[in-house]
Known about the structure:
Layout: E1 3-7, E2 16-22, H1 26-34, E3 41-47, E4 53-62, E5 73-79, H2 82-94, E6 98-100, H3 105-112, H4 118-129, H5 133-143, H6 146-170, H7 181-210, E7 212-218, H8 224-232, E8 250-256, E9 259-265, H9 275-290, E10 293-297, E11 313-315, H10 337-352, H11 361-382, H12 387-405, H13 411-418
Parallel strand pairs: 1-6, 7-9, 7-10, 10-11
Antiparallel strand pairs: 1-2, 2-5, 3-4, 4-5, 8-9
Amino acid sequence: MDTIYAxxxxxxxxxxxxxxxxxxxxxxxxxxxxxxVPTSRGVRKLRxxxxxxxxxxxxxxxxxxxxxxxxxxxxxxxxxxPAILKSVLAELSKLPDLRSxxxxxxxxxxxxNGKLDLAQVEGLADLIDAETEAQRLQALRVFEGGLSAKxxxxxxxxxxxxxxxxxxIDFADEEVPTDVFPEVNDLINxxxxxxxxxxxxxxxxxxxxxxxxxxIVGRPNVGKSTLLNRLxxxxxxxxxxxAGTTRDVIEVQMDLKGIPVTFIDTAGVRDTDDQIEKLxxxxxxxxxxxxxxxxxxxxxxxxxxxxxxxxxxxxxxxxDLSPGDGLGVSGQTGEGLDELVDEIVAxxxxxxxxxxxxxxxxxxxxxxxxxSQLSDVISKIALDEPVDLISEDLRAAVRSVDMIxxxxxxxxxxxxxxxxxxxxx
Length: 425
């Protein structure tokens, strides 16, 4: 393979800038810059082709088996000056048999060399993009091989089921010592139960990645925009004493105790002849119905066309103006705000606890495909259909599991996945 190089840290001034070189000529390229390459690590002066010093850097040398990419890697930890980084990259560009890396190419090589599987690659991409603690923990579980281990366990059980069935074919003219079908059914049912849990958790996992949506719902001038501004700590929405000020949906993204949440301020829900406000109300109702959670600001007498669902929260608005039973909230003074946030967090923490390690739609599609094939197997066993046909359905189920970790042809997926990585990763 070509030897590639790239900056592995973002552009701009920093304490340290890292340049990564990977491939068969990595050590030779580093030697051209620093004279001799340390066995593991050491401080070296980097020089250009004329011998002038470019920088004094910490040089790290990784043998193939110990490197991220699975091939010889040298990392140069430079002082984080843009000028230094530019000069070192320029010197590397002059060396033969070296080229600048493409987006995600270091990680692609880790996949090709068996250092990571496809699920771990996706976990790494999510880990790099994680902005909240929940996103970090979810991505880390996948990157560390949580989904890969489950896929391997499912695969082992299904391979065992295939072996048991094919034993009845191999020994068709002889007496098979035991009836294999009870164990085959047990293996398949156990796999299906585990897959069902992962599929259910995958929907919540997607919300962790994208952020849960919380719609603030109520009649006009009930304090929705003021509450949103208080939550955001800034004037995200226009507030006014005039009812119906909010005509469109306003969104504010936040990190609530490690959980990504997007609060939605909607138009006040009421009958109106104003066509613009009417459109705003229709949009508010639609967004509120599809949100993950709704916070209703309403008095007992208020009637809204949006139905309260399980986990939804109801608060008495403008608690600073009307003291009551403790279930009020005020965006103006912050009264009841901490309790409201705690309740929202508790709802989402309960949902996040059901998340497994299947976190992508691609994972869910593969798992549903596997489950469908296993359902066919159970039906065919019950109908006493030929064993060779049943085994073929089991092999299809195994291929669906293998799609998750990239053990079968997934070339069409790789370009999309790796294009999201930065050049130095």
